[in-house]
Amino acid sequence: MSLPEKHRIRAAFSRAAVSYDAAAVLQREVCRQLLDMLRASNARHMPADILDAGCGTGYGARLLASEWPSARLAAADFAAAMAQKTASTTAAACVADIESLPFRNQAFDLWWSSLTVQWCDPRYVFAEAVRVLRPQGRLALSTLGPGTYAELRQAFAGIDHHRHTLDFSEPAPLAAAAETAGLAQLQIVRRTITLHYPDLKTLLGAVKAIGANALGDGRRSGMMGKAAWQALSAAYEAQRTADGLPASYDVILLTARA
Q1: What's the pLDDT score for residue 104?
Q2: Taking a C-beta distance cutoff of 8 angstroms, is the pair 180, 252 a contact?
Q3: In this structure, what is the dihedral angle of CA atoms 219, 225, 231, 236, given to the nearest 10 degrees?
Q4: Exposure of 226 by Cβ count < 10 A (0-12 exposed, 13-18 middle, 19+ buried)?
Q5: β-strand partners of 110
Q6: Is 221 part of any domain?
Q7: Running along the chain, 258 residues long, what does each successive block of 10 average in pLDDT?
Q8: Is the torsion defined by CA of 116, 120, 122, 126 positive or negative?
């Protein structure tokens, strides 16, 4: 990802720090599922030092602190406002890009990252994870696959040719990057989580509230016109279910050993 792109995404997440916790329903559920998978993959693992890489406002860090209360917990996020919220509630947190961490070699027994890798180059992320993990240390991450926001892409398909979502990765390239970095015993689980909203404005507002409206190059510049908005709303309404307007997330969970 280019440096200007990273600056824009960092700014979006910094602005979202205030609204993030109230809107992060998916993020909390994915953290819980990732912890369940980590428990199942090695129930006896007792990490002494844990890193939450891409900590957001600290929900994952709080889960980890509850699971292993005697562990030393560090956290990093490249959005300063996010790192500050984590530091104020849970863990020692620094402002850092998880592609280039400010920690010494072999500093951690567990490297954890939930819903952050999709904003990064996984080759650099995994290389850094392996560098800071001790031998036999564990890695646990969640990210999003290409089925994410399928309904939104379908609704936009007849409106314009702008790119409205990230190009999320399939699990296979992610696994290949992990193995190239030196990780072993990979386990991958893929699940779809669908949230529902009463209307399109609320749905898009929830996406913006967590900072995920920073979707990359090729996006629309300026406001959407009234006719385009009405067409988008009608296209999305065609996908309404009894629970409301759906927003699907293609969730990929991965655990591995250094």
Answers
A1: 98
A2: no
A3: 50
A4: exposed
A5: 50, 138
A6: no
A7: 55 51 75 94 86 92 95 93 84 92 97 92 97 97 92 84 71 97 97 93 76 46 72 94 94 96
A8: negative
Token pair 């969640």: residue: 142
The answer to whether residues 144 and 115 touch, using CB atoms and an 8 Å cutoff, is yes
Q: Specify the number of domains making up the chain.
A: 1
| Order of strands across the sheet that contains 133-144 | 92-95, 72-77, 49-53, 108-114, 133-144, 245-257, 184-197
- State which residues form the domain around 11: 3-145+166-194+247-257
> Which residues partner with 72 through β-bridges?
49
- Is residue 15 a part of any domain in this protein? yes
Would you say residue 219 lies in a domain? no
pLDDT, position 224: 64
The string over 103-133, giving b where at least 16 C-beta atoms fall within 10 Å of a residue's C-beta and e elsewhere, is: beeebbbbbbbbbbbbbbebebbbbbbbbbb
Q: Is residue 153 part of a domain?
A: no
Helices and strands (H, E) in the chain, number of each type? 9, 7
pTM of the model: 0.84
- The CATH number for 66's domain is 3.40.50.150
Identity (one letter) of the amino acid at 185? Q
